[in-house]
Each structure stands twice: as C-alpha cells, then as structure tokens.
Write a structure and sequence with these properties.
This protein has 305 residues and is of the alpha/beta class. 41% of the residues lie in helices and 16% in strands. The chain has one domain: Alpha/Beta hydrolase fold, catalytic domain (Rossmann fold, 3-Layer(aba) Sandwich), CATH 3.40.50. It has an 8-stranded mixed beta sheet with strand order 1-2-4-3-5-6-7-8, sandwiched between helices.
C-alpha cells in the first residue's frame, strides 16, 4: 500500500498539476511554473545548486552546472519535453543522486525548443560527452543519466556513441524516459486516464515543437529505433500508470536485443519520475537511493582503461 505522503503527491499531481499543464498556453508559461516550483517545493539549496560552467570541444561549447561530489561523473540531462526545464530545476534530484553515488553531477543546459529544435539537444549532448573525454576523463568514469525527455536524450546519445568509434560510458540510467516520439506505445492510450501528471493530449504538441517537421523515427530523436551494439549496462525505471510505460519496456527490450545488460524497475501507482519527489515521500526516497547504488556499481565494476 502506498504511503500517506505518496497518496497526497498523487492527488496533487492528478487534480492540480496535470490540469494546469493541460491549460497553460505557451512554453514560456510552463517554464515559469516549473521555475517557481523548483524554488519552492523542490529547492536545491546551496548544497546542490552547483556552479555554472561550460564544456567545449572543436569550437563548440554547451553550458553546464556542476555539483562537485567526486572525480567520477554523472552526465545528466534534465526532463521537460525538450521545451522546458533546466539544470537548476533538477539540481536537487541530480545533487542527491551524485552525493549518494560519490560522483560529480554535471547537468547539461542543452538548447530547448521551439527556439532551438532538433537536433540541437542531441548535438549539445554529444558536445558535452566529447568534452569530458577531451578533458582527460576516461569513459569508464562517466555514467549517462536523465529523466523523461532527458532520459530519452541520454539514450539517443548512447545510440550516437555506439554508432561511432567513441568509447562507451560506464553505464546509463533513465527515469521514466521518453523514447518514442512517434507516440506508438500502447500505454499512450491505455494509461491516458490513469496517468497522474502528464496530459496525454499535449504530448504531440511538445513533440512537434521539438521536431519542427523532422522524422520522429530518427534514432537521434527516438532512441527506441536506434542501434546499441556494445552498449554498457543500463537501468530504467517507470511507473505502471504512466503513459510512458511502454516507452520504457520496449526500450529495455531493444537494448537487450543488442546485447546490453538491462535492469527495469516498474513501480506501482507512482508519479512520473518518481525519484524527483525523494524529499516528499518514502517510496521516492528509496527509488532515488536505488538509482545512486546502481550508478556506484556501474562505476565500480568497469575495467581500468
């Protein structure tokens, strides 16, 4: 049975947050709402706010925010449907994972749509990864991570890495990842009424802002259609009532089909990106701790380069 706190969160999301997200007319309105929530409900505090910086290679650079916890790195991509969100809105989430995993959190401030449509985000993701390697860090000391659209972006980056001669990272974790921008997953319809937070009627709108007419089946937009030969261990988690449930389950199978070791954690009646609520509910706190433990294991089990 869900804890009292989780039931309160679920009720708030279903009856307040989801209706609000369904009605806000423009990306700027959603950005302002999330920025306000990150300063109130999800305040990172100075401990997790980190320092601003940039990662660059070959004349390109991308802003990042670093949370210093160790020498090994979690290269993180925030969620927000490729339209909203930032390293600051997700600073507490990444900071807690990084602290428990004993790693540095590096959150990429990738360009957002509609101002910067596809492939701006994946280009920024690749720039950040290449820059970490250029800095002297070995790939065995890097774990990719992300939530929602950021989880899909981390997986798209992994597909791009696997298609090149770039060294593979130590592992990857994705929290409720959006992996199929064709929106063909069965749970898009079957979970539409029980989804706690995301308004299903607006997901195509966000997708179209991002793609701007480009192919939704491109592996760099929808990693579900990518190739992952030589991929490292991956950890995926999602709630059983989410419209993105099948995005996670099908993604896990694709990774397994390419030989990757994949762990999937499907939680019962929990909100989108459960670990985001770690400070508010015990189930979310336990989920975040599990992610951190997985990251630590990924970094500890890699061979010396």
């Amino acid at each position: 049975m869900s804890s009292f706190r989780l039931r309160i969160i679920n009720g708030f999301l279903r009856h307040i947050e989801r209706p609000a997200l369904s009605k806000l007319p423009e990306p700027a309105d959603i950005r302002r709402r999330l920025n306000f929530q990150s300063r109130t409900l999800f305040r990172p505090g100075r401990r997790y706010r980190g320092v601003a910086g940039s990662l660059g290679v070959d004349g390109r650079s991308v802003p990042v925010r670093e949370i210093e916890q160790g020498k090994q790195v979690i290269l993180y991509f925030h969620g927000g449907a490729y339209v909203f969100g930032s390293p600051l809105t997700h600073a507490k989430l990444l900071g807690q994972i990084a602290e428990q995993a004993g790693a540095k959190g590096v959150s990429v401030d990738y360009r957002l749509a509609p101002e910067h449509p596809f492939p701006a985000a994946i280009d920024d993701a690749l720039t950040a990864y290449q820059a970490l390697l250029e800095s002297g860090l070995t790939s065995n000391d890097i774990v990719l991570g992300g939530d929602s659209a950021g989880g899909g972006l981390a997986l798209a980056l992994l597909a791009r890495i696997c298609a090149t001669d770039l060294p593979r990272p130590a592992g990857l974790f994705a929290l409720s990842p959006w992996t199929d921008l064709t929106l063909s997953g069965a749970s898009m319809q079957s979970n539409a009424d029980i989804e706690l937070m995301l308004p299903p009627e607006r997901i195509a709108e966000a997708r179209d802002y991002y793609l701007n007419g480009q192919d939704a089946a491109s592996p760099l937009a929808s990693p579900l259609f990518g190739s992952f030969n030589g991929a490292p261990s991956c950890y995926l988690t999602v709630g059983d009532t989410e419209i993105l449930l099948d995005d996670t389950l099908r993604m896990a199978q694709v990774l397994r089909d390419h030989g990757a070791n994949v762990t999937v954690n499907v939680t019962r009646h929990t909100p989108h990106v459960l670990p985001f609520f770690a400070a508010l509910a015990p189930e979310a706190k336990a989920a975040l701790t599990e992610v951190a433990q997985v990251v630590r294991k990924m970094l500890d089990t890699q061979p010396i380069a």
